[in-house]
Structure formats: C-alpha cells, structure tokens
Amino acid sequence: MAKLYLEKLACVTTEGWGGFDEQRLVVQDRGTVWNGTVLGDRMYTVKYDCDFTGTIAVSLGESGTSGAGGGLGEQWITDTPGERSLRFRADGAEYRLLYAVE
After folding, report:
1. What separation, in Å, do the N-terminal and C-terminal C-alpha atoms of the chain show?
2. Are strands 93-101 and 2-13 parallel, antiparallel or unpaired?
3. Average pLDDT over residues 27-46
C-alpha cells in the first residue's frame, strides 16, 4: 500500500474572464478534497493525504459542475515513490499539482 500526499496547487493561468477560477480537486473514491477561488500566478496549499494501491485518479474542475463539463482533466498517479507534479490544461487555463508518494 502506498501513501499519497497532495501538497500544493499552482495556478499558472486562469480561464476566468475576471482573472480567477472556482476550482475543486477530486480524488477517486474520496470526493472533493480541496476547493476554492483561484487567482492566476499563485500557489495554494492542498494538504491532503490518503492510502491507495496501484493507481488513483485525480481530477481538477470548476466548482459546481460535474462530469465532463467544466473539467480541466483527470490524471492517474501510480504507487511509485517520489515527488512529482501533474499538469492540467484546458480552455486557456493551466494548473500544476505538486504531490508525493511514499
């Protein structure tokens, strides 16, 4: 069994017209683990951890939406130990999620 640590969410650019997005971070079988108003060129603390085996999905999307609409994508994290990042890009927005696996 591996331990996943979601650490920080970096907003490179937003898709919002007003310079901000309302985002939520969802972990497979655990639901929303972080949400908030996000401004461009900022870093946000997530501080979420969980145990998993094999692989686990993480998705980033707009708060208040479900399914494919408003999503920046879904990425899979493997149980290979180390510190890494995931990149989410869509509709002009770009985010990086920093995480570690033990």
Report:
1. 9
2. antiparallel
3. 95
Q: Exposure pattern of 46-80 as b/e (b: 16+ CB <10 Å)? A: bebeeebeeebebbbbbeeeeeeebbbeeeebeee
Q: In what order do the strands lie in the sheet with 93-101?
A: 42-52, 2-13, 93-101, 82-90
Query: What are 58-91's pLDDT values in tens digits?
Result: 999 988 665 544 589 999 999 999 999 999 999 8
CA distance 92 to 26: 21
List CB contacts of 67: < 8 A, sequence separation 6 or more. none
Please, what is the average pLDDT of the chain?
A: 92
Three-state SS at 8: strand
Find the mean pLDDT for residues 44-65. 93
